[in-house]
Amino acid sequence: MSSQPDSNDTAADAISRRDLFAGAAGALGAAVIAGVTHTETSAQQAPAPDTTHQQGAFASDLGTRAPSVAARRRVNPARQVSRTPLQDLDGSITPSDLHFERHHAGIPAIDPVKYTLLIHGLVAKPLVLTLADLRRYPSVTRIAFLECSGNFARNAAETTRPQELCGLTSQSEWTGVPLALLLREAGIRSEAKWLLAEGQDAAVMARSIPVEKAFDDALIAYAQNGEPLRPAQGFPARLFLPGWEGNANVKWLRRIEVGDQAYMTRDETSKYTESLKDGTARQFSFIMDARSVITAPNYPDKIQPGWLEVRGIAWSGRGKIARVDMSADGGKSWKPAQLQGAVLPKAHTRFAYMFQWSGEEAELISRATDETGYIQPTQHQLVEARGASTGYHLNPITGIRIKSDGSVVYRQETWA
Amino acid sequence: MKRFIVGLALVAGCSSTSQDSGQPARSSDPVPTLGIGRAATLQEIAALDIDVRPDGAGLPEGSGTAVTGRAVYAAHCVSCHGPEGQGTPTGEQLVGGSASEVFVASGTERSGRGGRKTVGSYWPYATTLYDYTNRAMPFDKPGSLTPSEVYAVTAFVLWKNGIIGENDSMNRATLPAVRMPARDKFVPDDRLRFRQVR
After folding, report:
1. How close is the nearest chain B Cα to the Cα of A80, in Å?
2. ipTM
């Protein structure tokens, strides 16, 4: 990536992180730290207590967050959905208790000792597997995002934070059994084309999955971020389909039936299908296309003129993120952001971008490109491609607007 | 079968063990089974195998009409879905709209303004209505209806949408033959054939 700012810089300037850390860190450090001010108010009012003259708290058998950490999911009134506070997170892993939720009939209470998974249908040997059985199989651990396909708030207000805009995506390190191993164990027959994955929640949620995905990278996951799945994430075992829409990743998995045709369940016909502009509806739209979102700064931050690290995440269900570009002129010109940490396939990837705010009204948008060359579209391009009436699989370019007083808001855009 | 074994080798290849470790091979062909888990009994399968396919596979014995379904609906459905299936804040609209309004070639305009997505306008298979009702309804007591009650309330909702007659019996033979207005409107996802937004 370029270490030189483009020649058409305006008041909204850019500097690369390499430049910054190479030689100018001492000189510029104070200005960078002073970028966002809203969290510093209390620190300025009273001196910090001196913790060096008495013993601190004892060790404990289960840790807790610092009391001041306020990151919380945001739950909808019907309490079927909660959204990850993307704006409060750093790095790429979502703490398990902040992973987004979407339940269709609540969270079932399942005794892991009595749990079983049934595999039957077009197999030579129908199988019953306990949780202990699943744990005996060869395991795979990978980091991947999980995103609901209904993860974009159209016509969102200025006061929208990433949590409300697109907080139905989260990332974990998942551990489980490759589904392929279990299907092989059961003796899957050659005419198999579709699997029915079924949960043991009160909706007995079920989705048809093409058998190819099972032999690509599907897991029966039993662990998340180093510990058993959270109940809200499918304890004790769930289907995990890297890069595919959340609903297909059936939680509390009780049964897999192997068949030769799709089952046409409610959640793959009347839901999770997209009306297109040609008068048809797209079905079995599993893959999550590439996307990025700026997570900091955001409403209600207030920034001061000078340098600021703008941060965000980018991801693609098609593979690795190749690049994230930023534009301060509505997309006429783009400059590369830096990708941070490990760039993994089908995984949230951190990006960072040094931005110099002049004190005048400004805006910034981010655009992801994945390793297949797919470029995150604008809202206009999405509507051109599909029409305006679908609410699923919307991954438009979005951004922030900085008002002349330094207050940061969501960059509003009217949907169609 | 070959593609499965090839695929398995790819998956298992992420964590292959050395050939001389005495471990089960993970990437050789053919891959041995591991013998972990036990055989399922027919009873165990029957107890869980509730799915119903568009071809009628999985539909149980039993039958019902809209006439008999009216009472089932009144007892179990009306509080959320409303007396005419018009929906309430807690239950979806089941009746109304039309496929010709929902599935309208719209260009980039917002389509379906008068076309609500309901069982009548948007559900492509009548069997899905049975399957979903049997799985997940009624909301306060899922899975509590008998097969004939599910057939009956399915018939009631189909009749309210003008798709079948009030006295048409729905059963394992007739339900898969019901032609839904949205039947041919769904197309498979083709995004991966294109490099850019689709």
Report:
1. 12
2. 0.88
